[in-house]
Amino acid sequence: MESSPSGPRGESRRSFLKLAAAAAFPAIVPASALGRGGKVAPSNRVTLGVIGTGNQGMNDIESFLKDDRVQVVAVCDVNRESPGYWDGKVGGREPARRLVEKHYARHKPSGEYRGCDAYVDFREVLGRKDIDAVEIATPDHWHAIPVLEACLAGKDIYCQKPLSLTIAEGRAMSYAVNKHRVVFQTGSQQRSDPHFRRACELVRNGRIGDLKVVRVGLPGGRPDFGKTGDRKKPEPVPPGFEYDRWLGPAAGAPYAPARCHVNFRWIYDYSGGQVTDWGGHHPDCAQWGMGTELTGPVEIRDARAQFDPDPLWNTATAFSFEAVYEDGVRMIVSNENTMGVTFEGTKGTVYANRGKHTADPASILDSKIGPGEIHLYESDDHFRNFIDCVISRGPTAAPVEVAHRSITICHLGNIAMRLGRKSLKWDPRTEQIVGDDEASRMLGRPYRDGWKLPAV
């Protein structure tokens, strides 16, 4: 721990927020309801701790800082400060602390602010009674344990995508969130993109006729995002980096810069490559348009992948698989497809990607969704939506069970490709692979000695 947690500041903001919801506050509480002069009083803000301040964590802090209903009071990372993140940028808990304190200092007459604590151990953040919610923006193999511990601590959670490293972890996370009734938002921000929502509404309301095929395009390769791809051999652990903590439940392995930070996603011990890195986005929106958010396919077939030889990175560089549903609809996930999601029906097609959606025939776009038709959850800001729901206690745009079902498709695709299976039968009701013991063993992962999922 870099600094001791400040003591509880009286009754938690959680109590106020629950009372607000019980008093029938609107889903979005206006600033005037909580403070003066259009500003939210500090004592009425949702207090937030951010666990994982490397890549997405730093970006997300900036997004939360734009919401004056939020007060970021703690940051946590096992790395003090180093390069090796997006485009070789610097990340870690100290840059995150500086980012937060610089932001709040601008609003102080003195121009100074010292109110954000920095931690190495996420459990110290969860132990603070004055924290209402946490973001978990750690590598994929470090999602499940903090999520379960946060549920036990009663914290609301914003967890970055992909939700889980394995199907078993995802199921445990969904169970814990629902048992402890915490608010949960997955960082699948395309759920707050009007283009994806509009495209999915058109499909769900039959504007392209009977849905037949959904083509999901993801990127391929293993880009060297961290600019560390030339450093794959073992090196001494740099000062300020708690590398053994970074490994956590994963298997022991020598430190190498190309193993950690942003490039972790190219190693199966910590992630699932492009298939899962983007699995919380386009396959998730495919499920949204298909109306299969709480179920999944019954078979994965025609799985094929290319694994370019590498001394460290081992995820697929090119891939394709089909997820076949009970009604015969096929979702084809491939890096060869057009990036985004294309829905093909008997009367036309609808395509969506970030920032746009199109249709063929184009006249489909003129269609109005009537009051008696399906209107999907509407959010135009993923971070504000989370805070709205922390206040209202309502469902978020990207709930945990929906995220679990979406990333399950990608985990199954990876299992089939890694084992070379042409067909993998799946029961979405029991969440079990049928008739393949070897594949079934890959639904979870063994944890390193001394690590286990907490009982919830």
In short:
The protein is α/β, with parallel strands linked by helices and 456 residues long. It has 14 helices and 15 strands.
Q: Can you give a write-up of this model?
A:
Keywords: Oxidoreductase. It comes from Aquisphaera giovannonii. Residues 224-452 form the Gfo/Idh/MocA-like oxidoreductase bacterial type C-terminal domain. InterPro entries: Gfo/Idh/MocA-like_OxRdtase_N, Gfo/Idh/MocA_oxidrdct_glycsds, Gfo/Idh/MocA_OxRdtase_bact_C, NAD(P)-bd_dom_sf, TAT_signal. Its EC number is 1.-.-.-. This protein is α/β, with parallel strands linked by helices and 456 residues long. It folds into two domains: 13-190, NAD(P)-binding Rossmann-like Domain (Rossmann fold); 192-376 and 402-443, Dihydrodipicolinate Reductase, domain 2. Helix content is 29%, strand content 17%. It contains 14 helices and 15 strands. It has a nine-stranded mixed β-sheet. A six-stranded parallel β-sheet has the order 3-2-1-4-5-6, sandwiched between helices. A hairpin with a 5-residue loop joins strand 9 and strand 10 (330-334). The longest helix has 20 residues, at 400-419. The protein is globular. The model is unreliable at 1-12 and 18-38 (pLDDT under 50).
